[in-house]
Input
Amino acid sequence: MSYGAPTEPMLNEPKGKAYAEFSEGNEIVWIVADDNPRDWEVCIDGEFWSSDAWNFETIVVNIDGLPYGLHTVVITVWDLSNNDVSDTVLVTVFDDIDPVMNSPHDMYIFVGISGNELAWIISDQNPDNYELYQDDVLVASGSWASSPWTYRYSINGFAEGTYVFMLTIYDIDGNSVSDYVTVYVQTDDIDPIINHPGDINMTVGTIGNYIVWTATDTFPSHYAIVENATVVGTGNWGGTTISLSLDNLPAGHYTFTITVYDSGGNTATDSVNVSVIPVGGWPALPLPDYTLAIIAVIGAAGAVAVVVIVVYTLRKKKAGAA
Output
């Protein structure tokens, strides 16, 4: 069947479109005219997107879900005579969402203690750059390309004082977020104070036996307990008591040494001797065997007696001869 002269359909040309990334309800509307419509197809960035039959109705194409950036949308419309017409619309997908950044707590650190740093975890679909200010002075800047990303800044070597840091991060479209952290740098040259519990004697197999140390400090940190060069206990120390269970120790003699540390690196140490006694007490030591010693003494005494007799006899003979 023939449908007349090869006249291509008439198609309007919508203006370029822009929408925010992840938003919904974004459409392009084309108005097409032809006496014998057939179908249409839309490609975006050279890839098939959608198609349908065309029956004189306005063509509406949803373009939600495009990634960030500029995209080329091309529609082609055919009539029953295979005449066609195309139109191109440029679509810009932009970012209107601020980056996301956690907020570290304010920090208290000590002069001379290393290993201190600020750390922020930041994320955005379209990362760009960052700026770090210390007391309103720019101290670091750069770009970030991965998300999520942890930005770290060393704060070692600071003199005693208070410092305010502000980190601002930006994405490609200029959306930004800032966070403030205050760092208090203090001097601590005072050792912790720790008591000395008495030495302990206990019977093997009994339970409920503990060494309890009481240690105090303005800035407590952690502790370590050692016995015979082996670490038997570690943990955080909050400035109160520290207990060590002695249950299940085999019989023997032990020396437990504790060292407590404060945040300024100062320490205090104490040692406690523990004797774990077998049930029934320590076994009696065997008496030494003196038999051989007695025989040796007797033998030596006999030898001396023989010598004395011989000497006496010789002297007597000499006297008779005279």
The chain has three domains: 14-94, 100-186, 193-277. Confidence is low (pLDDT under 50) at residues 303-314. Residues 71 and 91 are 5 Å apart (CA to CA).
